[in-house]
Amino acid sequence: VKIDQSHAGSSAQARAVNDGLAADVVTMNTTTDVQFLADSGVVAKDWAKKFPHDASPTTSTMLFLVRNGNPKHIKDWDD
Question: Are 18 and 11 in contact (CB under 8 A)?
Fold first, then answer.
């Protein structure tokens, strides 16, 4: 078994695969990158239908870091 790895941001990886980088496995961190590959014909157009409720196979978790005691009471994006 031979494994060659390529590391870059998800969108850069999607563009590289679209431009011809050979890949048996690709991991993306956003649905827009997967959809970009689907629109280009690299990934099945119905890729989202393979998951329950057209769900994305990837997620991102956001974390807000605030000053000690959270003096501005930041709890959500609107804050």
Answer: no
- 18 pLDDT band, cuts 50/70/90, is very high
Element (H, E) at 17: helix 10-18
Query: Beta strands of the chain (E only): which ranges?
Result: none
Euclidean distance between CA atoms 58 and 47, whole angstroms: 13
* Cα separations in angstroms, 7 against 26, 36, 37, 72, 77: 11, 18, 17, 38, 30
- 49-78 pLDDT, tens per residue? 887 776 666 666 778 899 999 999 999 889
59: helix, strand or coil: coil
Direct distance between the N- and C-terminal alpha carbons of the chain, in angstroms, rounded to an integer: 50
